[in-house]
């Protein structure tokens, strides 16, 4: 997890992506499988540069990324790309 703080120690929105907290999850192979973007209140927020709150990836048994999904702040799927 990455937290962006101002000089007073309080959370601030990073100007280029518009989030204050950036959370990550990894699978057993070290592949990033989830990113969550949150505001200064700790709630999900849309990244200002990509317009999604959650990014998910799926990998095959060889570690190749085979799917990417983007979700809004309510968890609704807004984009999906699956390698065929």
Task: Give an account of the 3D structure.
The chain has 84 residues and is mainly β. The protein has one domain (2-82). The protein is built from no helices and six strands. It has strands spanning 2-3, 21-26, 32-38, 54-59, 65-71, 77-82. The protein has a six-stranded antiparallel β-sheet with strand order 1-2-3-4-5-6, with no helix packed on it. A hairpin with a 5-residue loop joins strand 4 and strand 5 (65-71).
Number of strand segments = 6
Average pLDDT taken over every residue = 96
Beta-strand percent range: 35-45%
Query: How do the helices and strands follow one another from N- to C-terminus?
Result: EEEEEE
* Class inferred from helices and paired strands: mainly beta
C-alpha Rg (nearest Å): 14 Å
Task: Flag low-confidence runs.
Answer: none
Q: Which descriptor suits the 3D outline? A: globular
The helix content, as a percent range, equals under 10%
Let me know the largest β-sheet: 6 strands, antiparallel
Walk across the major sheet and give the strand order. 1-2-3-4-5-6
In the residues, how many domains can be counted? 1
Oligomer: single chain
N-end to C-end Cα span: 32 Å
| Total DSSP helices | 0
């Amino acid at each position: 997890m990455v937290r962006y703080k101002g000089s007073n120690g309080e959370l601030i929105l990073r100007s280029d992506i518009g989030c204050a907290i950036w959370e990550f999850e990894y699978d057993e192979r070290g592949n990033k499988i989830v990113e969550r973007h949150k505001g200064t209140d700790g709630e999900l927020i849309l990244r200002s540069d990509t317009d999604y709150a959650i990014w998910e990836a799926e990998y095959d048994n060889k570690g190749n990324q085979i799917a990417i999904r983007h979700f809004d702040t309510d968890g609704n799927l807004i984009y999906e790309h699956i390698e065929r």
